[in-house]
Design brief:
The protein is of the alpha/beta class. It has a single domain, classed as P-loop containing nucleotide triphosphate hydrolases (Rossmann fold), CATH 3.40.50. The chain contains nine helices and eleven strands. The strands form two sheets. A six-stranded mixed β-sheet has the order 7-8-9-3-10-11, with helices on both faces. The chain has a five-stranded antiparallel β-sheet with strand order 2-1-4-5-6, covered by helices on one side. A hairpin with a 2-residue loop joins strand 5 and strand 6. The longest helix is centred in the C-terminal third of the chain and has 18 residues. It is globular, with a radius of gyration of 19 Å. The protein starts with a strand and ends with a helix. The structure holds adenosine-5'-triphosphate (ATP). The site of adenosine-5'-triphosphate has 11 residues, from strand 2 and helix 1. It comes from Agaricicola taiwanensis. One of its GO terms (molecular function) is ATP binding.
């Protein structure tokens, strides 16, 4: 069973065609990077996969974990939305609530609604949330108000909530673009860790192709609403990016973090990655 199948999906906003007959399949357990210059359609595609918007036309379809979530511009009632978690660039947490409470919100799909609404989580749920925070490396912040966390900690708390939710797919829309390089690496390490150990399928959109090369075996590249490359991240040399994107490729390259300064990621085969980074 595939995790995500997008077939022939198009979407226009007025005169702007944000998605042009996009087709894409992710197998379960993959960690795939989605790259593209600003305005290329990454967020639009992610919103459609997440079930937040419907496409245009009769032929567009999105399937999640083997069930149709939208087809022909209509949402399907059978979507397995609880199995899909989405993390955005910012504002993933309720700032005035504690970090633990934000993570506990991941239980809401399963706990009776009245209990969640009243904040009545049981001991097992609280232990699970605390363990999820430990898993993403921030157990010490559980009692803090979420608004006091750094940007990277906030992203990791949002990933902890994904674990509590028992999501099978995590879609992250530019989760590191507001972060400094070391925080960005930590967040990407956590994504790679939950992908490798929990077999959670990860689709992560990125501006900086360095991270795609380092963390994801496969990259899907968009330009002007269409997929222009879908293949091994190792092929994404700077020359190839320049060929794909022209001058917009400058936006995708990370000038201040040479690839060789980065430690090998959790899930990569180190030798292959080294080779890829050297040749990039
Ligand atoms: N709700 C909307 N209303 C009008 N236009 C939109 C809307 N959402 C997206 N667009 C347009 O669709 C195109 C694709 O936008 P999208 O946000 O998907 O790009 P992106 O690749 O995610 O860009 P960025 O990297 O800057 O986030 C852009 O031209 C954008 O202006």
């Amino acid at each position: 069973m595939t995790a995500i199948t997008v077939s022939n999906l198009s979407k226009s906003y007025g005169a702007v065609q944000a998605l042009k007959e996009v087709s894409l399949t992710l197998a379960r357990g993959e960690m795939v990077a989605l790259i593209g210059a600003s305005g290329s359609g990454k967020s639009t595609l992610i919103r459609h996969i997440a079930g937040l918007e419907t496409g245009d036309g009769a032929s567009g379809k999105v399937e999640v974990l083997g069930q149709v979530s939208q087809a022909g511009g209509r949402m399907s009632g059978h979507a397995r939305r609880g199995k899909v978690a989405v993390i955005f660039q910012q504002f993933n947490l309720v700032g005035r609530l504690s970090v633990l409470t934000n993570v506990l919100i991941g239980h809401l799909g399963r706990a009776p609604r009245w209990r969640g609404t009243l904040g009545l989580f049981n001991r097992h749920e609280k232990e699970k949330a605390q363990a999820a925070l430990a898993r993403v490396g921030i157990p010490q912040v559980a009692r803090q108000r979420s608004s006091t966390l750094s940007g990277g900690q906030q992203q990791r708390a949002a990933i902890a909530r994904t674990l509590v939710q028992e999501a099978e797919i995590l879609i992250a829309d530019e989760p590191i673009s507001a972060l400094d390089p070391s925080s960005a690496r930590r967040v990407m390490d956590v994504l790679a860790d939950i992908n490798g150990k929990d077999n959670i399928t990860v689709l992560v959109s990125l501006h900086q192709v360095e991270y795609a090369r380092r963390y994801c075996k496969r990259t899907v590249a968009m330009r002007d609403g269409a997929i222009v490359y879908d293949g091994p991240s190792t092929a994404l040399s700077n020359d190839f990016l320049a060929e794909l994107y022209g001058s917009a490729s400058e936006e995708l390259v990370l000038p201040d973090a040479p690839a060789e300064q980065m430690a090998p990621p959790h899930k990569a085969e180190p030798r292959n990655y080294q080779t890829a980074l050297m040749s990039a």
